Amino acid sequence: MFNTFAQDYDSQREYIIPQMHEYSRAAVWAMESDAPEPSIIDIGADTGLLSAFLLEKYPGARLTLVDISGNMPDQAWKRFAARPETAYVVSDYSESDLGGQYDLVCSALSIHHLSAEEKRRLFVRIFEALKPGCLLVNADQAEGGAAVPQLLERVPPEWTNGGGTACGDPETSRYP
């Protein structure tokens, strides 16, 4: 499905999602790494828009972009033509090996397409692909409004900064 409109995908998203660039920049703001040139995998990368914003923050980042659509990485390749070291993988990230150990795993507006069970399996694989103490930022759609307090009740306190521990600290945090 995404192959058919890959060429116009960014402009369509900017039309449909108000303040799309601000949304992406907010996700990048949350992506912290101690590594000056972090290794980053962008899953469901589409045309590489989120990764382009990431490069503003981490110009020397080692990027791997993963998308199921063969035409999306073609658009990303054009975007990053001056960065031949950027890796592109066409695969179904809900099932494929993510490879390597990463300082950051990111995704924007993609994981919501998966079923609850696919998400559970993906998050386990993401945790395995992250270097100890490193970070996943998933900028995605979620139910808001009155449901937010109930959703927050399900989050173990040690997964949040309010729980008295560092998020992702392998010595103190527990993950699924």
Overall description:
There is one protein chain. The protein has about 180 residues and is of the alpha/beta class. The chain folds into two domains: about 1-140, Rossmann fold; about 145-175, no CATH class. The protein contains six helices and five strands; from the N terminus they run ααβαβαββαβα. α2 packs across α3.
Mean pLDDT: 76
- End-to-end span in angstroms? 32 Å
Question: In CATH, what is the class of the largest domain?
Answer: Alpha Beta
Give the overall silhouette.
Answer: globular
Instruction: Give the low-confidence spans.
Output: 1-6, 161-176
Count of individual helical segments:
6
Number of domains: 2
Helix content: 25-40%
Defining key terms:
5 strands; 2 domains; disordered N terminus; alpha/beta; Rossmann fold; 176 residues; disordered C terminus
Element layout with pairings:
Elements: H1 9-16, H2 20-30, E1 39-43, H3 49-57, E2 62-67, H4 71-79, E3 87-90, E4 102-108, H5 116-129, E5 130-139, H6 147-153
Parallel strand pairs: 1-2, 1-4, 2-3, 4-5
Briefly characterize the structure.
Helices cover about 35% and strands about 20% of the residues.
